[in-house]
Amino acid sequence: IELSEPTNSSLEERNLITSKPKVKDVLREHKAYTLSEVGIKKFNGTVLGYVTPWNNHGYDIAKIFARKFTHISPVWFQLKLSDDEKSTIVEGKENIDSEWMRDVRRNNPEIKIVPRVILENWYHSHLVVLLTNTKLPPFIGKQLAELAKYYDFDGFVLEIWSAFAAQQKSEVSNIIAKIHAHFKKSKLELILVVPPPVHYGGRVGLFLKEDAERLAPHVQGFSLMTYDYSNYQRPGPNSPIKWVKECIKLLVPKPMSPIRKKLLVGLNFYGYEFTPTGGTPITGNQYLKTLEEYKPKLIWDEASAEHHFEYKSGYSKNRVFYPTLYSIKKRLEAIQEFHTG
Q1: Which homologous superfamily does the CATH classification assign to the domain defined by 42-272+324-338?
Q2: Where are the domains of the chain?
Q3: What is the distance between the alpha carbons of residues 240 and 302, in angstroms, rounded to a whole number?
Q4: Which one of 50, 67, 95, 139 has the minimum C-beta count within 10 Å?
Q5: Taking the complete model, does pTM exceed 0.85, yes or no?
């Protein structure tokens, strides 16, 4: 199949946003974005995009479509506790790409670059140190603020909440507030990664309405992990739309609450492949390769608002869930309806 190049005709004109997409269209048109819309942001709210090390193509996407984002978060840093447990160390500085940052800002001078910082390999004893040593949270705040000043970041996306597995919530909130106090002095933004308030089967999550209310004054946004709903023990859609809406309503029930705008609803741009022996996340290249090889039929599931397909490999029957233009459109409609980011 010959690949289509970027073009001036819109996705609608090419009839590509449909519940019945053809595999040949996906294979032919997947690189053919609309040139005339590259610099146009159609969504009113905050748009945060992650650039991950396992998909280098994301760096190019961020440059080309910079005007469609308000924030870009390269997944660069890990926060570790020092050996003497009196300070922290930021690892991952070798990932910093200043030239790429310049290119992104050249294409959108308004964009905010907010690298992700994650607490990595913190054992229970480390977390206890962070909870009990009152000097550590301000130290982290100051350390990150200095890093931002030196490398010209606009803030950080902080992934800390899930490490504590919902224990000592008020103490963890205080830690975040102390970190934010240093950010505020330096006019830096803090976006907090948060897990969903409910999981499959109604299981209650680690981040709830009262947590959002307590933390809202100390963050510019909550990056909500509304994906990975299913797993290999229970194959199915990655992010059923009813569940996404339920997560929003549980965290911020009042439609006019100012916290709604701070909720950044997660959209997965990867898929999942389930086999009889397990399941694994897949990126676009793997998805295209499978489509090319097996030419399956894409099936629309109205309940979850996701496409999937099945194919046989040897003796095993595999199922693949992967976002399509139509499934993304349905989620964007829901996000606009709920006035979130």
Answers
A1: Glycosidases (3.20.20.80)
A2: 1-37, 42-272+324-338
A3: 10
A4: 95
A5: yes
